[in-house]
Amino acid sequence: MNLEKWLHLLPGKRFIIGVPYVWLLIFFVIPFLILLRISVTDMGNGVDPFAPLSEMIEGTLRITLKYQNYLSIFELTDDNDAMALGETIYVIAYLTSVKYALWTTVLCLFICYPFAYFIARARKSIQPALLMMVMLPFWTSFLLRVYAWKGILADQGVVNNVLLWLGVIEEPLLLLYSDVSMLVGMTYVYCPFMILPLYATLVKMDFRLLEAAYDLGASPWKAFWLVTVPLSKAGIIAGSMLVFIPCLGEFVIPSLLGGAENLMIGRVVWDEMFSSNNWPRAAALAVVMVLFILVPMAVYTHYSAERDAAEED
What is the phi-psi region of residue 59: left when phi exceeds 0, alpha when psi lies from -120 to 50, beta otherwise? Predict the structure, then answer.
């Protein structure tokens, strides 16, 4: 049987639509449900995700859900009416993760927008080469690229040696294991995730609109702000989501470049899982982090739906 006859036997649209749903079911929904089940498990009963959630004790049905794993994250007490949100190490880790993710997103946007604009305005013949240069870092191990920044930012690293040689400083700067080193590493790693969506939006822009703005007396900056930025809003939002979401749960870069005070939620989950061996609490932390991620994704999906509806009208 040749390929064409085999393709005619496939249920066409249902098959094409069903494959992504099956993929999400197997590799996202089921693992998330297992994680959710572990998060309400009592450590004394093990962490079997397939263990029953209820049991009969002297003819009474007892539900065995340990929601205290979630209450302990936010220091919520269920023994009184007034539930208070305390500054636990978990809350601090969540807020720290959001802070660094936002800063990384802003830095990536300011650095990558000119690059994406330059590539979009470049000649068609050299655009593939420029995009290849953006993608080249992905050909190198992620871990090696992060370790390279340790050598660059160390006390006797490249940056300090150059500044000492130029006479700008008299003693090495403390760049490594700080906010600076972590933001530099995260911005460097996630810049391609910002450039590519911006380029995909800007390359489709009709640049004759800028010429029209100039003819109407607009300055280059005003034309950029009133024409280019609104037309590239979809790329800005898509790139920001692609940077913010993975930065929120980043583990490797804060561990290698960040200091002890830069406690992000990815490291806290790792400590709870492997150091404290508290799988239910680690699972609860991960579930809450997933909920944090779903919020910006829902905002982006809502915006995309409104944009598509406006384009159809």
Answer: left
pTM for this entry: 0.82
Asked whether residue 235 carries a pLDDT value surpassing 70, the answer given is yes
Residue 57 is inside which H or E element, if any?
A: strand 54-57
pLDDT tens by residue, 243-281: 998 998 888 898 888 877 778 888 888 888 888 888 888
Number of domains in the chain: 2
Residues in a beta bridge with 63: 54
Distance (Å, whole) CA 192 – CA 174: 28
Find the Cα–Cα–Cα–Cα dihedral 256, 186, 166, 174, rounded to 10°. Answer: -40
Give the span between the Cα atoms of 40 and 283, in whole angstroms: 9
Residues 127 and 264 in one domain: yes
Would 184 be classed as within a structural domain?
A: yes
User: Is 76 part of a structural domain of the chain?
Assistant: no
Considering only residues 2 and 140, tell me which one the structure prediction assigns the higher pLDDT: 140
Q: Please tell me the total number of residues recorded for the chain in this structure.
A: 313
Tell me which residue range forms the domain holding 138: 89-312
CB 76 within 8 A of CB 158: no
Condensed to tens digits (0 to 9), the pLDDT of residues 151-162 reads 898 888 888 888
Query: Which of 3-17, 27-41, 116-130 is the least confident region?
Result: 3-17
Q: Please, is 239 exposed, middle or buried when counting C-beta atoms within 10 Å of its C-beta (0-12, 13-18, 19+)?
A: buried
